[in-house]
Design a protein that fits this description.
The chain is an alpha/beta fold. The protein contains 19 helices and 14 strands. A hairpin with a 5-residue loop joins strand 9 and strand 10. Helix 2 packs across helix 11 and helix 4 crosses helix 7. The structure holds 2-oxoadipic acid (OOG) and nickel (II) ion. Nickel (II) ion (NI) binds next to strand 2 and strand 8.
């Protein structure tokens, strides 16, 4: 067998995780089948327009996973594993305050960062770390017990970490080593059948079902794997028609007749799964846990920091109107109204107002009719080029996550609010602290999109033989 580069390892890793998870959670296979059908129909109905935010082959193969670890040490180890697959930490999400119930985690996402790597295979994993030192959730005694329990387990065997380091260093691995890396990495995320200590699990569950899922067991597992669809409303309706109960709403932006922005997500509720427990009297027996769920997403255009501010204001305005009793309490209807009042209806307008990120292509006809050859050697503004239709904006897809949706997804699958003592002060986490924990810099998503847009503008200027400002 020959050398396998990062992207080849990543594509195979995603494929194996998907097969494993499909065996573990058969409803996931239904979700994938329905997603594929939705995408095919969307393509049939919309033609080339359907592929504006990603080719059908990329979108159909596209997944994100979610995993949860228990300590900074485990976070740094999982970062080494993902580096083997060309997946790097991007973005910081603090979910502790993003919802009213107890979600005691801070997160980042591991994903390819270069546009060509994303195009080859965009597999990403939303990775959460239990904030086991946050006194709002965990008493000093529980913090210590958690540290001991988590410190005593091994999620990622030494052999896996060593192979991963080699893959990171050499840009991939040769045949036998590549195969072993894939085997070990996939196995590390398999649901374990080791008995779960019932009393310990329940003690943590009283604080948060997320805490028990992370710190109450001796291994980690994929929480969900998420396919991408081109029409999430259609997907939602088809899943319900199949008798699968979805959470009440689609999270994130509403459906409207302007450009799709950021990320829309929904999920079906966590399903009961058989697990083995060890009870306090020493007996071992079967039981059920309900922690893993199915999620699906539709991706839209990445927003600039200005666009993101507008988005956050629109979300706040939606909340305000809902609280005031507008729209019969139906969030998406209220949100649609807010969107229509505030967000430009065309990609061109989004680009002109610098609200979203784009790459640009040249429209030769528009160039000829507006400028002839007169641009060569001169200076022109990007705004003018866009206005005249010479620079045609092509959307840059949002590759990241939304903290409020993430918290909503966690939360909608909890049966209990858990407990949080807001009289205590929470531990400080931010992107820099996360970088130290992960052991490598956590990239700012906006910088990555900006870099891609800048490169495209530079290429445009080169093409036109002019300075574009
Ligand atoms: C992660 C929840 C967040 C998303 O897509 O926003 C998430 C988890 O449940 O571990 O996956
Ligand atoms: Ni997810």
């Amino acid at each position: 067998m020959s050398f396998r580069a990062h992207w080849q390892l990543r594509a195979e890793f995603a494929r194996r995780l998907s097969a494993m998870y499909g065996d573990e959670v058969p409803a996931y296979n239904t979700l994938v089948d329905v997603s594929t059908a939705v995408n095919e129909d969307h393509l049939r109905n919309k033609g080339a327009e359907a592929e504006r935010l990603g080719s059908i082959s990329r979108v159909t193969a596209e997944r994100h996973g979610a995993i949860r670890v228990g300590s900074p040490q485990e976070m740094s180890q999982v970062a080494r594993v993902f580096a083997a697959f060309g997946m790097h930490p991007v973005g910081f999400y603090d979910l502790r305050d993003a919802s009213k119930s107890s979600v005691p985690v801070v997160s980042t996402a591991f994903r390819p960062v270069e546009p060509d790597e994303l195009a080859k295979n965009p597999f990403r994993v939303f990775t959460s770390m239990l904030a086991a030192d946050d006194p709002r959730f965990f008493s000093p005694e529980l913090q210590e017990q958690l540290r001991d329990f988590i410190g005593a387990r091994t999620l990622f065997p030494e052999e896996l970490l060593e192979l991963a380091d080699q893959a990171a260093e050499h840009g991939g691995l040769e045949g036998g080593d590549a195969e072993r890396l894939l085997e070990l990495a996939t196995a590390a995320f398999k649901l374990s059948d080791d008995p779960v200590d019932y009393a310990w699990y329940k003690k943590l569950e009283a604080v948060s079902a997320v805490a028990s899922d992370i710190g109450g067991v001796t291994s980690t597992h994929i929480n969900h794997l998420t396919p991408r669809v081109l029409d999430i409303d259609d997907l939602y309706a088809r899943m319900e028609a199949q008798g699968i109960t979805m959470i009440d709403e689609i999270q994130g932006p509403p459906r409207w007749d302007g450009p799709d922005i950021l990320l829309r997500q929904t999920s079906f509720r966590a399903l009961s799964e058989d697990r083995i427990f060890r009870f306090e009297d020493g007996t071992v027996g079967p039981g059920e846990l309900r922690v893993r769920f199915g999620e699906v997403e539709q991706r839209g255009i990445a927003l600039t920091p200005t666009g993101r501010d507008l988005y956050d204001r629109m979300v706040a305005e939606t909340d305000r109107r809902l609280a005031a009793g507008e729209g019969n309490g139906v969030r998406v209807d209220v949100a649609r109204g807010v969107w229509e009042e505030n967000l430009p209806r065309t990609e061109k307008e989004l680009a002109l107002q610098k609200l979203a990120y784009f790459t640009f292509t040249v429209d030769g006809d528009a160039l000829g009719s507006h400028y002839g050859d007169s641009l060569r050697g001169g200076t022109v503004s990007l705004t003018e080029l866009i206005e005249k239709g010479v620079a045609v904006p092509e959307p840059i897809v949002y590759e990241d996550f939304l903290p409020r949706s993430a918290a909503g997804i966690f939360q909608s699958n909890l049966t209990d609010d858990g407990s949080r003592d807001d009289a205590q002060t929470g531990t400080d986490y931010d992107i820099d602290v996360m970088s130290t924990i992960v052991g490598r810099p956590v990239a700012d998503p906006a910088e990555l999109y900006q870099r891609q847009q800048d490169a495209s503008i530079a290429a445009l200027a080169e093409d036109l033989g002019t300075t574009v400002e």
